[in-house]
Specification:
single chain, about 575 residues, alpha+beta, eight-stranded mixed sheet, four-stranded antiparallel sheet, virulence, metal-binding, serine protease, glycoprotein
Length: about 575
Protein backbone atom coordinates (compact mmCIF):
# COMPACT_ATOMS: atom_id res chain seq x y z
CA UNK A 1 0.00 0.00 0.00
CA UNK A 2 1.49 3.35 -0.98
CA UNK A 3 1.79 5.99 1.75
CA UNK A 4 -1.02 8.21 0.38
CA UNK A 5 -3.53 5.32 0.43
CA UNK A 6 -2.40 4.33 3.90
CA UNK A 7 -2.98 7.83 5.30
CA UNK A 8 -6.40 8.19 3.67
CA UNK A 9 -7.46 4.74 4.78
CA UNK A 10 -6.41 5.29 8.40
CA UNK A 11 -8.14 8.65 8.57
CA UNK A 12 -11.34 7.39 6.95
CA UNK A 13 -11.60 3.87 8.35
CA UNK A 14 -14.55 2.04 6.88
CA UNK A 15 -15.63 5.20 5.07
CA UNK A 16 -12.64 4.68 2.76
CA UNK A 17 -14.83 2.14 0.95
CA UNK A 18 -18.15 3.98 1.22
CA UNK A 19 -18.15 5.63 -2.21
CA UNK A 20 -19.37 3.12 -4.80
CA UNK A 21 -18.95 3.29 -8.58
CA UNK A 22 -20.83 1.26 -11.16
CA UNK A 23 -18.60 -1.60 -12.27
CA UNK A 24 -20.79 -3.51 -14.72
CA UNK A 25 -24.31 -3.32 -16.10
CA UNK A 26 -26.39 -5.42 -18.47
CA UNK A 27 -29.05 -3.49 -20.36
CA UNK A 28 -31.48 -6.39 -20.74
CA UNK A 29 -32.10 -9.99 -19.74
CA UNK A 30 -30.56 -12.32 -22.37
CA UNK A 31 -32.84 -14.19 -24.75
CA UNK A 32 -34.23 -17.40 -23.28
CA UNK A 33 -34.32 -16.10 -19.71
CA UNK A 34 -37.31 -14.78 -17.77
CA UNK A 35 -37.47 -13.13 -14.37
CA UNK A 36 -38.75 -15.44 -11.65
CA UNK A 37 -38.55 -13.58 -8.34
CA UNK A 38 -36.18 -11.60 -6.13
CA UNK A 39 -33.52 -13.83 -4.62
CA UNK A 40 -34.41 -14.85 -1.05
CA UNK A 41 -32.60 -12.48 1.30
CA UNK A 42 -31.21 -15.28 3.47
CA UNK A 43 -29.91 -17.39 0.58
CA UNK A 44 -26.12 -17.66 0.59
CA UNK A 45 -24.24 -16.44 -2.50
CA UNK A 46 -20.74 -17.69 -3.19
CA UNK A 47 -19.01 -14.92 -5.10
CA UNK A 48 -15.67 -14.96 -6.86
CA UNK A 49 -13.54 -11.84 -7.02
CA UNK A 50 -10.97 -11.58 -9.80
CA UNK A 51 -8.11 -9.26 -8.89
CA UNK A 52 -6.37 -7.32 -11.63
CA UNK A 53 -3.25 -9.08 -12.89
CA UNK A 54 0.09 -7.49 -12.08
CA UNK A 55 1.48 -7.31 -15.65
CA UNK A 56 -0.86 -8.70 -18.29
CA UNK A 57 0.77 -6.65 -21.08
CA UNK A 58 4.12 -8.21 -20.20
CA UNK A 59 2.57 -11.67 -20.40
CA UNK A 60 1.14 -10.80 -23.81
CA UNK A 61 4.59 -9.78 -25.03
CA UNK A 62 6.11 -12.98 -23.68
CA UNK A 63 3.41 -15.15 -25.28
CA UNK A 64 4.08 -13.77 -28.74
CA UNK A 65 7.82 -13.93 -28.19
CA UNK A 66 7.73 -17.69 -27.51
CA UNK A 67 5.06 -18.36 -30.16
CA UNK A 68 6.24 -16.41 -33.21
CA UNK A 69 8.67 -18.13 -35.61
CA UNK A 70 11.83 -16.11 -36.06
CA UNK A 71 11.77 -14.77 -32.53
CA UNK A 72 14.91 -15.45 -30.50
CA UNK A 73 12.64 -16.88 -27.77
CA UNK A 74 10.53 -19.06 -30.07
CA UNK A 75 9.71 -22.34 -28.30
CA UNK A 76 11.34 -21.22 -25.03
CA UNK A 77 8.15 -21.50 -23.02
CA UNK A 78 7.68 -19.87 -19.65
CA UNK A 79 7.65 -21.80 -16.38
CA UNK A 80 4.79 -21.80 -13.90
CA UNK A 81 6.76 -19.46 -11.66
CA UNK A 82 7.38 -17.01 -14.49
CA UNK A 83 3.72 -16.95 -15.53
CA UNK A 84 2.54 -16.56 -11.92
CA UNK A 85 4.70 -13.44 -11.63
CA UNK A 86 2.70 -11.87 -14.47
CA UNK A 87 -0.79 -12.87 -13.33
CA UNK A 88 -0.42 -12.38 -9.58
CA UNK A 89 -2.13 -9.23 -8.31
CA UNK A 90 -0.10 -6.56 -6.56
CA UNK A 91 0.30 -6.94 -2.81
CA UNK A 92 -1.48 -3.61 -2.43
CA UNK A 93 -4.60 -4.79 -4.28
CA UNK A 94 -4.78 -7.98 -2.22
CA UNK A 95 -4.49 -6.05 1.03
CA UNK A 96 -7.08 -3.46 0.07
CA UNK A 97 -9.69 -5.98 -1.12
CA UNK A 98 -9.23 -8.18 1.94
CA UNK A 99 -9.51 -5.12 4.21
CA UNK A 100 -12.79 -4.14 2.53
CA UNK A 101 -14.15 -7.63 3.11
CA UNK A 102 -12.87 -7.75 6.68
CA UNK A 103 -14.61 -4.48 7.57
CA UNK A 104 -17.82 -6.16 6.43
CA UNK A 105 -17.14 -9.25 8.55
CA UNK A 106 -16.24 -11.35 5.52
CA UNK A 107 -13.23 -13.57 4.95
CA UNK A 108 -12.08 -14.63 1.49
CA UNK A 109 -10.17 -17.74 0.46
CA UNK A 110 -7.64 -17.98 -2.36
CA UNK A 111 -8.75 -20.06 -5.34
CA UNK A 112 -5.42 -19.98 -7.18
CA UNK A 113 -1.75 -20.21 -6.36
CA UNK A 114 -1.18 -16.83 -7.99
CA UNK A 115 -3.86 -15.26 -5.79
CA UNK A 116 -5.73 -13.65 -8.69
CA UNK A 117 -9.06 -15.24 -7.70
CA UNK A 118 -10.69 -14.91 -4.26
CA UNK A 119 -13.91 -16.54 -3.10
CA UNK A 120 -16.29 -15.25 -0.41
CA UNK A 121 -19.79 -16.23 0.74
CA UNK A 122 -22.49 -13.94 2.09
CA UNK A 123 -26.30 -13.69 2.31
CA UNK A 124 -28.16 -12.12 -0.61
CA UNK A 125 -29.20 -9.16 1.51
CA UNK A 126 -25.56 -8.35 2.32
CA UNK A 127 -24.48 -8.77 -1.31
CA UNK A 128 -27.23 -6.42 -2.45
CA UNK A 129 -26.07 -3.77 0.02
CA UNK A 130 -22.32 -4.27 -0.43
CA UNK A 131 -22.50 -4.14 -4.24
CA UNK A 132 -25.57 -1.92 -4.75
CA UNK A 133 -27.02 -4.89 -6.59
CA UNK A 134 -30.42 -6.52 -7.00
CA UNK A 135 -29.86 -10.28 -7.08
CA UNK A 136 -32.80 -11.97 -8.77
CA UNK A 137 -33.72 -15.51 -9.76
CA UNK A 138 -33.98 -15.99 -13.53
CA UNK A 139 -35.42 -19.03 -15.29
CA UNK A 140 -34.28 -20.63 -18.55
CA UNK A 141 -37.11 -22.97 -19.47
CA UNK A 142 -35.37 -24.62 -22.42
CA UNK A 143 -32.29 -25.51 -20.40
CA UNK A 144 -34.38 -26.22 -17.30
CA UNK A 145 -32.17 -24.21 -14.96
CA UNK A 146 -32.37 -21.24 -12.63
CA UNK A 147 -29.61 -18.68 -12.15
CA UNK A 148 -29.32 -16.04 -9.45
CA UNK A 149 -27.94 -12.93 -11.09
CA UNK A 150 -28.01 -9.14 -10.98
CA UNK A 151 -28.20 -6.83 -13.98
CA UNK A 152 -25.68 -4.44 -12.43
CA UNK A 153 -23.29 -4.10 -9.53
CA UNK A 154 -20.95 -1.52 -8.04
CA UNK A 155 -17.70 -1.63 -6.08
CA UNK A 156 -15.88 0.88 -3.88
CA UNK A 157 -14.24 3.58 -5.99
CA UNK A 158 -10.93 2.98 -4.21
CA UNK A 159 -10.93 -0.62 -5.48
CA UNK A 160 -11.70 0.20 -9.11
CA UNK A 161 -8.16 -0.55 -10.29
CA UNK A 162 -7.81 -3.62 -8.09
CA UNK A 163 -10.95 -5.63 -8.88
CA UNK A 164 -11.37 -6.89 -12.42
CA UNK A 165 -14.79 -8.47 -11.86
CA UNK A 166 -17.09 -10.24 -9.42
CA UNK A 167 -18.85 -13.42 -10.51
CA UNK A 168 -21.58 -14.61 -10.76
CA UNK A 169 -23.23 -11.27 -11.36
CA UNK A 170 -24.07 -10.17 -14.93
CA UNK A 171 -23.06 -13.31 -16.86
CA UNK A 172 -25.93 -15.56 -17.97
CA UNK A 173 -23.95 -18.04 -20.04
CA UNK A 174 -24.90 -21.71 -20.14
CA UNK A 175 -22.29 -24.14 -21.39
CA UNK A 176 -23.36 -25.75 -24.66
CA UNK A 177 -22.16 -29.09 -25.88
CA UNK A 178 -21.29 -28.20 -29.46
CA UNK A 179 -22.79 -31.24 -31.14
CA UNK A 180 -25.49 -30.36 -33.64
CA UNK A 181 -27.05 -33.68 -34.51
CA UNK A 182 -27.00 -37.19 -33.07
CA UNK A 183 -28.48 -39.64 -35.54
CA UNK A 184 -30.24 -42.96 -34.98
CA UNK A 185 -28.09 -45.49 -33.06
CA UNK A 186 -27.35 -48.88 -34.58
CA UNK A 187 -26.39 -51.81 -32.36
CA UNK A 188 -22.92 -53.25 -32.91
CA UNK A 189 -22.59 -56.98 -33.40
CA UNK A 190 -19.94 -58.67 -31.26
CA UNK A 191 -17.51 -55.77 -31.71
CA UNK A 192 -16.77 -56.74 -35.32
CA UNK A 193 -15.48 -54.25 -37.86
CA UNK A 194 -18.74 -52.73 -39.04
CA UNK A 195 -17.38 -50.32 -41.62
CA UNK A 196 -14.47 -51.95 -43.43
CA UNK A 197 -12.81 -49.78 -46.04
CA UNK A 198 -9.72 -50.06 -48.18
CA UNK A 199 -9.38 -46.88 -50.21
CA UNK A 200 -10.82 -43.46 -50.87
CA UNK A 201 -12.90 -44.94 -53.68
CA UNK A 202 -14.96 -46.55 -50.94
CA UNK A 203 -17.98 -44.23 -50.83
CA UNK A 204 -18.85 -45.19 -47.27
CA UNK A 205 -16.63 -42.34 -46.01
CA UNK A 206 -18.96 -39.83 -47.62
CA UNK A 207 -21.64 -40.58 -45.03
CA UNK A 208 -19.92 -42.60 -42.28
CA UNK A 209 -16.63 -41.10 -41.14
CA UNK A 210 -14.24 -43.23 -39.07
CA UNK A 211 -10.63 -42.80 -37.90
CA UNK A 212 -9.47 -44.77 -40.94
CA UNK A 213 -11.29 -42.30 -43.21
CA UNK A 214 -9.60 -39.39 -41.45
CA UNK A 215 -6.18 -41.03 -41.59
CA UNK A 216 -6.52 -41.26 -45.33
CA UNK A 217 -8.14 -37.87 -45.90
CA UNK A 218 -5.62 -35.91 -43.81
CA UNK A 219 -2.64 -38.28 -43.97
CA UNK A 220 -2.54 -38.77 -40.19
CA UNK A 221 0.09 -41.41 -39.30
CA UNK A 222 -0.63 -44.47 -37.17
CA UNK A 223 1.83 -43.42 -34.42
CA UNK A 224 2.38 -47.12 -33.65
CA UNK A 225 5.80 -46.52 -32.13
CA UNK A 226 5.32 -43.20 -30.38
CA UNK A 227 7.97 -42.77 -27.72
CA UNK A 228 8.15 -39.02 -27.12
CA UNK A 229 7.74 -38.29 -23.42
CA UNK A 230 5.75 -35.27 -22.26
CA UNK A 231 3.39 -35.39 -25.24
CA UNK A 232 -0.09 -35.52 -23.71
CA UNK A 233 -3.41 -34.58 -25.30
CA UNK A 234 -6.05 -33.35 -22.82
CA UNK A 235 -9.82 -33.63 -23.39
CA UNK A 236 -12.18 -31.25 -21.55
CA UNK A 237 -15.21 -32.96 -20.03
CA UNK A 238 -18.20 -31.03 -18.68
CA UNK A 239 -21.92 -31.47 -17.90
CA UNK A 240 -21.52 -34.98 -16.45
CA UNK A 241 -20.41 -36.38 -19.78
CA UNK A 242 -18.53 -39.63 -19.10
CA UNK A 243 -16.05 -41.44 -21.35
CA UNK A 244 -16.49 -45.21 -21.19
CA UNK A 245 -13.50 -47.54 -21.59
CA UNK A 246 -15.59 -50.52 -22.73
CA UNK A 247 -17.16 -48.40 -25.50
CA UNK A 248 -13.67 -47.26 -26.51
CA UNK A 249 -12.56 -50.89 -26.73
CA UNK A 250 -15.52 -51.71 -28.98
CA UNK A 251 -14.84 -48.60 -31.08
CA UNK A 252 -11.16 -49.43 -31.62
CA UNK A 253 -11.91 -53.04 -32.52
CA UNK A 254 -14.46 -51.86 -35.07
CA UNK A 255 -12.78 -48.80 -36.57
CA UNK A 256 -9.05 -49.12 -35.78
CA UNK A 257 -8.49 -52.90 -35.98
CA UNK A 258 -4.73 -52.31 -36.35
CA UNK A 259 -4.61 -50.88 -32.80
CA UNK A 260 -4.65 -52.64 -29.45
CA UNK A 261 -8.37 -52.46 -28.55
CA UNK A 262 -7.47 -52.21 -24.85
CA UNK A 263 -5.67 -48.88 -25.32
CA UNK A 264 -6.71 -46.71 -22.40
CA UNK A 265 -6.77 -43.06 -21.38
CA UNK A 266 -5.92 -41.28 -18.13
CA UNK A 267 -8.29 -39.32 -15.90
CA UNK A 268 -7.95 -35.96 -14.15
CA UNK A 269 -10.75 -34.82 -11.85
CA UNK A 270 -11.62 -31.15 -11.22
CA UNK A 271 -14.44 -29.78 -9.01
CA UNK A 272 -15.31 -33.28 -7.86
CA UNK A 273 -15.54 -34.58 -11.41
CA UNK A 274 -15.92 -38.32 -11.91
CA UNK A 275 -16.04 -40.71 -14.85
CA UNK A 276 -18.67 -43.37 -14.29
CA UNK A 277 -17.97 -46.60 -16.16
CA UNK A 278 -21.62 -47.61 -16.22
CA UNK A 279 -22.17 -47.93 -19.97
CA UNK A 280 -25.70 -46.54 -19.68
CA UNK A 281 -24.17 -43.27 -18.40
CA UNK A 282 -21.72 -42.88 -21.30
CA UNK A 283 -22.03 -39.45 -22.93
CA UNK A 284 -22.06 -38.80 -26.66
CA UNK A 285 -19.68 -35.84 -26.38
CA UNK A 286 -17.19 -37.55 -24.07
CA UNK A 287 -17.30 -40.70 -26.21
CA UNK A 288 -16.75 -38.71 -29.40
CA UNK A 289 -13.80 -36.78 -27.95
CA UNK A 290 -12.05 -39.80 -26.45
CA UNK A 291 -12.66 -42.17 -29.34
CA UNK A 292 -11.46 -39.75 -32.02
CA UNK A 293 -8.34 -38.73 -30.12
CA UNK A 294 -7.26 -42.19 -28.94
CA UNK A 295 -8.32 -43.57 -32.33
CA UNK A 296 -6.14 -41.07 -34.20
CA UNK A 297 -3.09 -40.55 -31.95
CA UNK A 298 -2.79 -44.29 -31.19
CA UNK A 299 -0.01 -44.68 -28.60
CA UNK A 300 0.25 -40.98 -27.66
CA UNK A 301 -1.04 -40.32 -24.14
CA UNK A 302 -4.61 -39.00 -23.83
CA UNK A 303 -6.08 -37.57 -20.61
CA UNK A 304 -9.79 -36.98 -19.94
CA UNK A 305 -10.26 -33.93 -17.68
CA UNK A 306 -13.61 -34.43 -15.97
CA UNK A 307 -15.00 -31.23 -14.45
CA UNK A 308 -17.73 -31.83 -11.88
CA UNK A 309 -20.80 -29.79 -11.05
CA UNK A 310 -19.60 -28.53 -7.64
CA UNK A 311 -18.95 -24.77 -7.69
CA UNK A 312 -20.11 -24.80 -11.29
CA UNK A 313 -22.89 -22.24 -11.78
CA UNK A 314 -24.07 -22.32 -15.40
CA UNK A 315 -20.84 -23.92 -16.58
CA UNK A 316 -18.62 -20.84 -16.44
CA UNK A 317 -17.11 -21.68 -13.06
CA UNK A 318 -16.12 -25.07 -14.42
CA UNK A 319 -14.41 -23.44 -17.40
CA UNK A 320 -12.40 -21.18 -15.10
CA UNK A 321 -11.69 -23.93 -12.58
CA UNK A 322 -10.30 -26.25 -15.23
CA UNK A 323 -8.00 -23.56 -16.58
CA UNK A 324 -6.92 -22.56 -13.06
CA UNK A 325 -6.23 -26.23 -12.31
CA UNK A 326 -3.94 -26.40 -15.35
CA UNK A 327 -2.25 -23.07 -14.59
CA UNK A 328 -1.53 -24.32 -11.06
CA UNK A 329 -0.12 -27.61 -12.38
CA UNK A 330 3.62 -28.23 -12.35
CA UNK A 331 5.33 -27.76 -15.68
CA UNK A 332 5.96 -31.51 -16.08
CA UNK A 333 2.27 -32.30 -15.57
CA UNK A 334 0.83 -29.93 -18.18
CA UNK A 335 -0.74 -31.53 -21.28
CA UNK A 336 0.77 -30.18 -24.48
CA UNK A 337 -2.67 -29.81 -26.05
CA UNK A 338 -6.18 -29.34 -24.66
CA UNK A 339 -9.23 -29.64 -26.89
CA UNK A 340 -12.67 -28.42 -25.79
CA UNK A 341 -15.98 -29.05 -27.55
CA UNK A 342 -18.08 -26.75 -25.36
CA UNK A 343 -18.73 -23.04 -25.55
CA UNK A 344 -21.05 -20.09 -25.03
CA UNK A 345 -22.63 -17.24 -26.90
CA UNK A 346 -20.32 -14.28 -26.39
CA UNK A 347 -23.14 -11.88 -25.52
CA UNK A 348 -24.20 -14.05 -22.56
CA UNK A 349 -20.89 -13.41 -20.78
CA UNK A 350 -19.84 -10.16 -19.18
CA UNK A 351 -16.98 -8.52 -21.03
CA UNK A 352 -14.87 -8.51 -17.86
CA UNK A 353 -15.26 -12.26 -17.39
CA UNK A 354 -14.56 -13.01 -21.06
CA UNK A 355 -11.34 -10.98 -20.82
CA UNK A 356 -10.33 -12.73 -17.58
CA UNK A 357 -10.86 -16.18 -19.09
CA UNK A 358 -9.02 -15.14 -22.23
CA UNK A 359 -6.08 -13.93 -20.12
CA UNK A 360 -6.02 -17.36 -18.49
CA UNK A 361 -5.73 -18.96 -21.93
CA UNK A 362 -2.87 -16.55 -22.64
CA UNK A 363 -1.12 -17.78 -19.49
CA UNK A 364 -1.35 -21.40 -20.62
CA UNK A 365 -0.23 -20.53 -24.13
CA UNK A 366 2.88 -18.86 -22.71
CA UNK A 367 3.68 -22.19 -21.03
CA UNK A 368 3.51 -23.99 -24.38
CA UNK A 369 -0.01 -25.40 -24.25
CA UNK A 370 -2.00 -25.54 -27.49
CA UNK A 371 -5.66 -24.70 -26.79
CA UNK A 372 -8.27 -25.67 -29.37
CA UNK A 373 -12.02 -24.97 -29.15
CA UNK A 374 -14.88 -25.97 -31.42
CA UNK A 375 -16.26 -22.82 -33.08
CA UNK A 376 -19.95 -23.68 -32.52
CA UNK A 377 -22.90 -25.14 -34.39
CA UNK A 378 -25.19 -22.16 -35.01
CA UNK A 379 -23.65 -20.69 -38.15
CA UNK A 380 -23.67 -16.94 -37.62
CA UNK A 381 -26.43 -17.21 -34.98
CA UNK A 382 -24.19 -18.42 -32.15
CA UNK A 383 -23.05 -21.61 -30.46
CA UNK A 384 -26.37 -23.28 -31.31
CA UNK A 385 -28.89 -22.41 -34.03
CA UNK A 386 -31.35 -19.76 -32.84
CA UNK A 387 -34.15 -17.77 -34.40
CA UNK A 388 -34.86 -14.09 -34.12
CA UNK A 389 -31.31 -12.72 -34.05
CA UNK A 390 -31.07 -9.36 -35.78
CA UNK A 391 -27.26 -9.22 -35.77
CA UNK A 392 -24.72 -12.03 -35.91
CA UNK A 393 -23.91 -13.71 -32.59
CA UNK A 394 -20.21 -14.46 -31.94
CA UNK A 395 -19.21 -17.43 -29.79
CA UNK A 396 -16.82 -17.69 -26.88
CA UNK A 397 -14.04 -18.78 -26.34
CA UNK A 398 -13.59 -18.71 -30.14
CA UNK A 399 -13.41 -14.91 -30.01
CA UNK A 400 -10.41 -15.01 -27.68
CA UNK A 401 -7.23 -14.28 -29.68
CA UNK A 402 -5.09 -16.70 -27.61
CA UNK A 403 -6.82 -19.93 -28.63
CA UNK A 404 -7.24 -21.76 -31.94
CA UNK A 405 -10.87 -22.06 -33.08
CA UNK A 406 -11.86 -25.06 -35.20
CA UNK A 407 -14.75 -24.90 -37.66
CA UNK A 408 -16.48 -27.73 -39.49
CA UNK A 409 -16.43 -29.28 -42.96
CA UNK A 410 -18.40 -32.01 -44.72
CA UNK A 411 -17.76 -34.35 -47.63
CA UNK A 412 -14.93 -36.83 -48.12
CA UNK A 413 -14.03 -36.62 -51.81
CA UNK A 414 -14.92 -32.92 -52.12
CA UNK A 415 -14.63 -31.19 -48.76
CA UNK A 416 -16.90 -28.18 -48.28
CA UNK A 417 -17.97 -25.95 -45.41
CA UNK A 418 -20.52 -27.42 -43.01
CA UNK A 419 -23.56 -25.13 -43.03
CA UNK A 420 -23.73 -25.07 -39.22
CA UNK A 421 -20.05 -24.14 -38.71
CA UNK A 422 -20.05 -21.07 -36.46
CA UNK A 423 -17.81 -18.26 -37.56
CA UNK A 424 -17.60 -14.52 -37.50
CA UNK A 425 -16.10 -11.64 -35.54
CA UNK A 426 -15.90 -10.93 -31.83
CA UNK A 427 -17.67 -7.93 -30.33
CA UNK A 428 -15.27 -7.93 -27.36
CA UNK A 429 -11.78 -8.71 -28.65
CA UNK A 430 -10.13 -6.64 -31.41
CA UNK A 431 -8.50 -8.32 -34.36
CA UNK A 432 -4.97 -9.51 -33.46
CA UNK A 433 -2.17 -8.43 -35.75
CA UNK A 434 -1.45 -11.99 -36.89
CA UNK A 435 -4.84 -11.96 -38.67
CA UNK A 436 -4.58 -8.60 -40.39
CA UNK A 437 -3.53 -9.74 -43.86
CA UNK A 438 -5.81 -12.79 -44.06
CA UNK A 439 -8.92 -11.06 -42.70
CA UNK A 440 -8.43 -7.84 -44.67
CA UNK A 441 -8.24 -9.92 -47.84
CA UNK A 442 -11.52 -11.62 -46.94
CA UNK A 443 -13.31 -8.38 -46.09
CA UNK A 444 -12.27 -6.95 -49.46
CA UNK A 445 -13.80 -9.99 -51.18
CA UNK A 446 -16.95 -9.80 -49.02
CA UNK A 447 -17.65 -6.19 -49.93
CA UNK A 448 -21.04 -4.93 -48.72
CA UNK A 449 -22.46 -8.35 -47.88
CA UNK A 450 -23.80 -8.46 -44.29
CA UNK A 451 -22.80 -4.85 -43.65
CA UNK A 452 -23.90 -3.76 -40.17
CA UNK A 453 -24.48 -7.31 -38.94
CA UNK A 454 -20.99 -7.94 -37.55
CA UNK A 455 -17.98 -6.15 -36.09
CA UNK A 456 -15.47 -6.12 -38.95
CA UNK A 457 -12.66 -4.99 -36.62
CA UNK A 458 -13.13 -7.87 -34.18
CA UNK A 459 -11.05 -11.02 -33.71
CA UNK A 460 -12.14 -13.29 -36.54
CA UNK A 461 -12.77 -17.03 -36.24
CA UNK A 462 -12.48 -19.95 -36.87
CA UNK A 463 -8.79 -20.34 -37.58
CA UNK A 464 -8.85 -23.86 -39.08
CA UNK A 465 -11.39 -26.62 -39.67
CA UNK A 466 -11.89 -30.38 -39.97
CA UNK A 467 -14.56 -32.98 -40.69
CA UNK A 468 -17.78 -32.51 -38.71
CA UNK A 469 -20.49 -34.62 -40.35
CA UNK A 470 -21.26 -38.32 -40.02
CA UNK A 471 -18.63 -39.36 -37.46
CA UNK A 472 -19.33 -42.85 -36.13
CA UNK A 473 -19.29 -43.02 -32.33
CA UNK A 474 -19.92 -45.95 -29.97
CA UNK A 475 -22.19 -45.10 -27.02
CA UNK A 476 -23.51 -47.82 -24.73
CA UNK A 477 -22.33 -50.47 -27.22
CA UNK A 478 -24.21 -48.93 -30.16
CA UNK A 479 -23.01 -46.76 -33.02
CA UNK A 480 -24.32 -43.23 -33.38
CA UNK A 481 -23.63 -40.87 -36.25
CA UNK A 482 -22.69 -37.43 -34.93
CA UNK A 483 -22.49 -34.02 -36.60
CA UNK A 484 -21.06 -30.81 -35.16
CA UNK A 485 -17.87 -28.84 -34.70
CA UNK A 486 -17.40 -30.89 -31.53
CA UNK A 487 -16.08 -33.46 -34.02
CA UNK A 488 -13.63 -31.01 -35.59
CA UNK A 489 -11.61 -29.88 -32.59
CA UNK A 490 -10.47 -33.33 -31.37
CA UNK A 491 -9.53 -34.25 -34.94
CA UNK A 492 -7.34 -31.19 -35.40
CA UNK A 493 -5.91 -31.65 -31.90
CA UNK A 494 -4.88 -35.18 -32.85
CA UNK A 495 -3.01 -33.85 -35.88
CA UNK A 496 -1.10 -31.40 -33.68
CA UNK A 497 -0.34 -34.14 -31.13
CA UNK A 498 1.13 -36.28 -33.91
CA UNK A 499 3.28 -33.37 -35.11
CA UNK A 500 4.41 -32.72 -31.54
CA UNK A 501 5.43 -36.34 -31.27
CA UNK A 502 7.85 -35.90 -34.16
CA UNK A 503 9.14 -32.56 -32.86
CA UNK A 504 9.80 -33.83 -29.34
CA UNK A 505 11.42 -36.95 -30.75
CA UNK A 506 13.93 -34.67 -32.52
CA UNK A 507 14.63 -32.64 -29.39
CA UNK A 508 12.53 -29.68 -30.52
CA UNK A 509 9.84 -27.91 -28.47
CA UNK A 510 6.16 -28.71 -29.02
CA UNK A 511 4.10 -26.26 -31.06
CA UNK A 512 2.33 -24.34 -28.26
CA UNK A 513 0.10 -21.40 -29.25
CA UNK A 514 -0.53 -22.04 -32.94
CA UNK A 515 -1.99 -18.88 -34.41
CA UNK A 516 1.14 -16.79 -35.12
CA UNK A 517 2.57 -19.89 -36.81
CA UNK A 518 -0.43 -20.86 -38.93
CA UNK A 519 -1.16 -17.31 -40.10
CA UNK A 520 2.53 -16.65 -40.75
CA UNK A 521 2.64 -17.97 -44.30
CA UNK A 522 4.51 -21.28 -44.46
CA UNK A 523 2.09 -23.27 -42.35
CA UNK A 524 -1.06 -21.65 -43.78
CA UNK A 525 0.03 -22.90 -47.20
CA UNK A 526 0.24 -26.41 -45.73
CA UNK A 527 -3.48 -26.41 -44.96
CA UNK A 528 -6.07 -27.47 -47.54
CA UNK A 529 -8.12 -24.41 -48.47
CA UNK A 530 -11.92 -24.92 -48.42
CA UNK A 531 -13.60 -22.60 -50.90
CA UNK A 532 -17.25 -23.68 -51.06
CA UNK A 533 -20.22 -23.47 -48.71
CA UNK A 534 -21.51 -20.93 -46.19
CA UNK A 535 -22.83 -20.71 -42.61
CA UNK A 536 -26.39 -19.42 -42.66
CA UNK A 537 -28.24 -17.88 -39.72
CA UNK A 538 -30.12 -14.82 -38.46
CA UNK A 539 -32.23 -14.81 -41.64
CA UNK A 540 -29.17 -14.57 -43.90
CA UNK A 541 -26.86 -16.84 -45.85
CA UNK A 542 -24.12 -15.96 -43.38
CA UNK A 543 -20.57 -15.81 -44.65
CA UNK A 544 -19.35 -17.53 -47.82
CA UNK A 545 -16.25 -19.72 -47.89
CA UNK A 546 -13.73 -18.35 -50.37
CA UNK A 547 -10.13 -18.83 -51.42
CA UNK A 548 -7.94 -18.00 -48.43
CA UNK A 549 -9.17 -17.47 -44.87
CA UNK A 550 -12.93 -17.23 -44.31
CA UNK A 551 -15.20 -17.13 -41.21
CA UNK A 552 -16.62 -20.58 -41.94
CA UNK A 553 -13.59 -22.86 -42.34
CA UNK A 554 -10.71 -20.57 -41.37
CA UNK A 555 -7.47 -21.26 -43.21
CA UNK A 556 -8.57 -24.79 -44.06
CA UNK A 557 -8.17 -28.42 -43.06
CA UNK A 558 -4.97 -30.31 -42.13
CA UNK A 559 -2.63 -32.02 -44.55
CA UNK A 560 -0.20 -33.90 -42.36
CA UNK A 561 2.54 -34.42 -44.92
CA UNK A 562 2.50 -30.73 -45.92
CA UNK A 563 2.50 -29.61 -42.28
CA UNK A 564 5.36 -31.96 -41.51
CA UNK A 565 7.36 -30.64 -44.44
CA UNK A 566 6.64 -27.02 -43.52
CA UNK A 567 7.92 -27.68 -40.00
CA UNK A 568 11.00 -29.45 -41.34
CA UNK A 569 10.44 -32.68 -39.40
Amino acid sequence: MILRDYIVYCSGGKHRFAKLVLHDIRSAIPAGFTTSSPAKSTDILTLRIALTENDISGLNTSLYSVSTPGSASYGKYLSKTEVDAYISPSANSTRMVNKWLSLNNLTATNLTAAGDWLQVSMPVTQANTLLAANFTVFNHSTAGIQLTRTLSYSIPAVLKNYIQLIHPTTSFAIANRLSAVVKTPTALKNSVEVIPRQSSSDSICETSVTPQCLQELYGIPSNDNSSASGNTLGISGFLNQFANQEDLTVFLAAFRPDMNPSTNFSLLEVDGGTNSQDQTEAGVEASLDIQYTVGLVSTISVTFISVGESNNDGGLDGFQDMINFLIDSDDADLPGIVTTSYGFDEDAISQDLAVKLCNSYMALGARGVTLLFSSGDGGVSGSQEQDGCTTFVPTFPSGCPYITSVGGTAGFSNETAASFSSGGFSNIFPRPSYQDDAVTQYLNILGDINTGLFNASGRAYPDVSAQSVGLQVVVDNATESVDGTSCSSPIFASVIASLNDLLIGQGQPRLGFLNPLIYGGTLSAALSDITTGNNAGCGTNGFPAVSGWDPVTGLGTPNFASLQAALGI
